[in-house]
């Protein structure tokens, strides 16, 4: 994956309670992984997509790289992503505002 300084990094953070750690991990690794991967692969301009968890701070993270901001904004209306968010919010997860960052520099 080649990321240049004119590309976009999109970051989404969702906070959960410690007792939800195992359930959130299972949901991310099973049902949502199976529906999100094919949906994201169909979007234009995706350069990479990463899902992670910080189990100590109880945060799930989605970080993706895009050719343009318009490409990144496709995620805001992606049905599979909206469905995932709705399901997690019903469990009490709290999401902060998703941000889209212009890459200023990178390691060579």
Describe this structure in words.
The protein is α+β, with helices and mostly antiparallel strands and 108 residues long. It has one domain (8-102): Alpha-Beta Plaits. It contains four helices and five strands. Strands 1, 2, 3, 4 and 5 form a five-stranded antiparallel β-sheet that branches. β2 and β3 form a beta hairpin. α1 (21-29) packs across α2. The relative contact order is 0.30. The model has no long low-confidence stretch (mean pLDDT 95).
In short:
With 108 residues, this protein is an alpha+beta fold. The chain has helices at residues 21-29, 31-41, 69-72, 79-90, and strands spanning 8-15, 46-54, 59-66, 94-95, 99-102. Strands 1, 2, 3, 4 and 5 form a 5-stranded antiparallel sheet that branches.
Topology:
Blueprint: E1 8-15, H1 21-29, H2 31-41, E2 46-54, E3 59-66, H3 69-72, H4 79-90, E4 94-95, E5 99-102
Low-pLDDT segments, ≥5 res: none
Q: What order do the SSEs take from the amino end to the carboxyl end, as H and E?
A: EHHEEHHEE
CATH architecture designation: 2-Layer Sandwich
Kindly report the oligomeric state of this protein: single chain
Q: What is the CA–CA distance across the termini?
A: 13 Å
Rough outline: globular
CATH topology: Alpha-Beta Plaits
Number of DSSP helices? 4
- CATH class, named Alpha Beta
Largest sheet: 5 strands, antiparallel
Q: Approximately how much beta-strand content do the residues carry?
A: 25-35%
Total DSSP E strands? 5
């Amino acid at each position: 994956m080649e990321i240049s300084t004119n590309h976009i990094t999109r970051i989404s953070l969702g906070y959960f309670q410690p007792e939800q750690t195992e359930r959130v991990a299972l949901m991310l690794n099973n049902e949502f992984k199976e529906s999100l991967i094919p949906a994201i692969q169909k979007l234009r301009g995706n350069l990479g997509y990463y899902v992670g968890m910080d189990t100590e701070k109880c945060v799930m993270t989605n970080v993706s790289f895009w050719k343009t901001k318009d490409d990144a904004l496709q995620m805001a209306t992606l049905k599979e992503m909206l469905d995932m968010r709705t399901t997690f919010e019903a469990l009490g997860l709290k999401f902060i505002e998703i941000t889209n960052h212009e890459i200023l520099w990178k390691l060579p």
